[in-house]
Amino acid sequence: MKKEDIDSIENNSRISHVEKDELMDFKAQKEGLGFFDLFIAIFILILILGIFTPKIYLSNNIYYISRDITRLYSEKELLNEERIRLEKEIEYINQKHLRLELGV
Q: Which pLDDT belongs to residue 55?
C-alpha cells in the first residue's frame, strides 16, 4: 500500500492520532478509597465519637443519679412516717405513765 492510501484510510477512520495516543496512555483509576479519603473517614468517625461519647456518658450518669435521688426521697418519706408513728407511740406511753402515777 502506498502512503497516500494509508493516509486516506486514516482520514476516514473514526479515531484521530491524538485520540489514539490518549487511549494508549490511558491509565485505569484504582477502585476503592485512597489514603486521603480513608484519613478523612477515620477523622469523621473520631469526631462523631468525640461528640457523642461524652453525651452518652452524661446522660447515663444523670439517669443513675436521678434514680438514686428518687430512692433516697422515698426512704426519707418512709422515715418521716415512721418518726410520726413513733412520736404518737411515745405520747401514748407518756400519757399512760402519767395516768399510772396519778392513779387515774
A: 93
